[in-house]
């Protein structure tokens, strides 16, 4: 089914009118489709059927417990990058033996938490991290399963802020240093080498860099085997992009099959870490027009959502389709869709041709990934409610914050 479609001219989330959701929960409001979440995961499951493979959802894309719960119920794993994300995944019912811990700055306390939970693997990103993890594991009387995140120095052809596989990026260990680091890991008493990890970036639309990165990683796998280091799994990371505007996003099949062909007869478990691809088009941000401010140079539509709710346009210059909830009538004109935050960079869309009136509801599409997860309380704005639609059923999965909650942890001077 289509997650978001018009019925009698009104945009719906599955079987529920967005007008009804706005009336019930207010705006701005995040709206997610359970059917879309499950359909996105099923696309990966179909391609991986019959293989020793595990899809580990990248929690950073959208960490709402209900979203994690949907994936956990279907047996998915999770890719985490903090102790907080680990606690979230466990609270949502995740199997710790299906959790991989990525990230460049793991603290000793986070390592202890993950070791106590008995997670599947630590994706280690530096030599000092290897030493720290071995020491922490030894202090706890445990052995930490590890893979090295190897930087293949492949251009992912994406926005520089979300490219992670080049030499100048902070992520991973240099390809040329990986063999020596694996030998070092093998010498440490409280580590066990489990696999190898590679992640080259986010919102990737060309499968070619994936294949180029895998070729380099498999060469390293063979070198490791020649040195007596045999791996159990290969983690191909995530980053597969979605269609926001007019991008030609590859299908999961087009992305996976060339890589799976290369892995045939390798006897390695395959791990994947998709985030955006699973949740991006399963969510939208519902907002209302507060004021229309036509001008000689630009026309401004001031809505009640802002850059603190959805940071991607201001941060990356990203495009999100913005559509009226009720089918528009009348003449259109170009509008700057902006929020009430006191920054000139507070915009959600430039030059959108829309027929607008004060009070209109707008849906900011493809906002399920890096939306609420990157939101803030800038300008002391309470974060919006989150709603999950499941057919005709509606679940409030995070209530709207109150202003009082924003300063509940603070106190005046005596």
UniProtKB/TrEMBL annotation:
The biological pathway it contributes to is: Amino-acid biosynthesis; L-lysine biosynthesis via DAP pathway; L-lysine from DL-2,6-diaminopimelate: step 1/1
Query: What are the Orn/DAP/Arg decarboxylase 2 N-terminal domain coordinates in residue numbering?
Result: 36-279
Q: Which InterPro entries match?
A: Ala_racemase/Decarboxylase_C, DAP_deCOOHase_LysA, De-COase2_C, De-COase2_N, Orn/DAP/Arg_de-COase, PLP-binding_barrel
GO molecular function terms noted in the UniProt entry: diaminopimelate decarboxylase activity; pyridoxal phosphate binding
* Residues noted as binding pyridoxal 5'-phosphate in the record, renumbered to the chain: 239, 273-276, 370
Q: Which reaction does it catalyse?
A: meso-2,6-diaminopimelate + H(+) = L-lysine + CO2
> So what family is this one in?
Belongs to the Orn/Lys/Arg decarboxylase class-II family. LysA subfamily.
The UniProt function text for this chain reads: Specifically catalyzes the decarboxylation of meso-diaminopimelate (meso-DAP) to L-lysine.
* Descriptive protein name: Diaminopimelate decarboxylase
Q: Which organism is it from?
A: Accumulibacter regalis
Upper taxonomic classification of the species?
A: Bacteria, Pseudomonadati, Pseudomonadota, Betaproteobacteria, Candidatus Accumulibacter
Q: Which gene encodes it?
A: lysA
């Amino acid at each position: 089914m289509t997650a978001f479609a018009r019925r009698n001219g009104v945009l719906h989330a599955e079987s529920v009118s967005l007008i009804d959701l706005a009336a019930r929960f207010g705006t701005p409001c995040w709206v997610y489709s359970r059917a879309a979440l499950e359909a996105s995961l099923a696309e990966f499951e179909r391609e991986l059927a019959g293989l020793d493979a595990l899809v580990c959802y990248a929690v950073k894309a959208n960490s709402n417990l209900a979203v994690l719960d949907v994936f956990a119920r279907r047996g998915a794993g999770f890719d985490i990058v903090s102790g907080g994300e680990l606690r979230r995944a466990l609270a949502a019912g995740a199997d710790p033996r299906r959790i991989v811990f990525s990230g460049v700055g793991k603290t000793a306390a986070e390592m202890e938490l993950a070791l106590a939970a008995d997670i599947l693997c630590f994706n280690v990103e530096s030599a000092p991290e290897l030493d720290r993890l071995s020491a922490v594991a030894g202090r706890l009387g445990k052995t930490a399963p590890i893979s090295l995140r190897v930087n293949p120095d492949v251009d992912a052809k994406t926005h520089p802020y979300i490219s992670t596989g080049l030499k100048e990026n902070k992520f991973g260990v240099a390809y040329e240093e990986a063999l020596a680091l694996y030998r070092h890991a093998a010498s440490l008493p409280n580590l066990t080498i489990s696999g190898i990890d590679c992640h080259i970036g986010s919102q990737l639309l060309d499968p070619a860099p994936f294949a180029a990165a895998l070729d380099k990683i498999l060469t390293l796998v063979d070198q490791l085997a020649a040195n007596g280091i045999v791996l159990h799994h290969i983690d191909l990371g995530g980053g597969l992009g979605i269609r926001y505007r007019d991008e030609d996003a590859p299908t999961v099949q087009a992305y996976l099959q060339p890589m799976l062909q290369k892995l045939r007869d390798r006897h390695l478990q395959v791990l994947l870490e998709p985030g955006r691809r699973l949740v991006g088009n399963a969510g939208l941000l519902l907002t209302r027009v507060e004021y229309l401010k036509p001008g000689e140079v630009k026309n401004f539509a001031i809505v009640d959502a802002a850059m603190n709710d959805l940071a991607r346009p201001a941060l990356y210059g990203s495009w999100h389709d913005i559509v009226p909830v009720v089918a528009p009538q009348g003449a259109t004109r170009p509008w700057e869709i902006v929020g009430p935050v006191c920054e000139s960079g507070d915009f959600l869309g430039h030059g959108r041709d829309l027929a607008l009136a004060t009070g209109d509801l707008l849906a900011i599409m493809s906002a399920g990934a890096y939306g609420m997860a990157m939101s803030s309380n800038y300008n002391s704005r309470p974060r919006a409610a989150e709603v999950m639609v499941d057919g005709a059923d509606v679940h409030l999965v995070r209530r709207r914050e109150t202003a009082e909650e924003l300063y509940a942890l603070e106190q005046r001077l005596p």
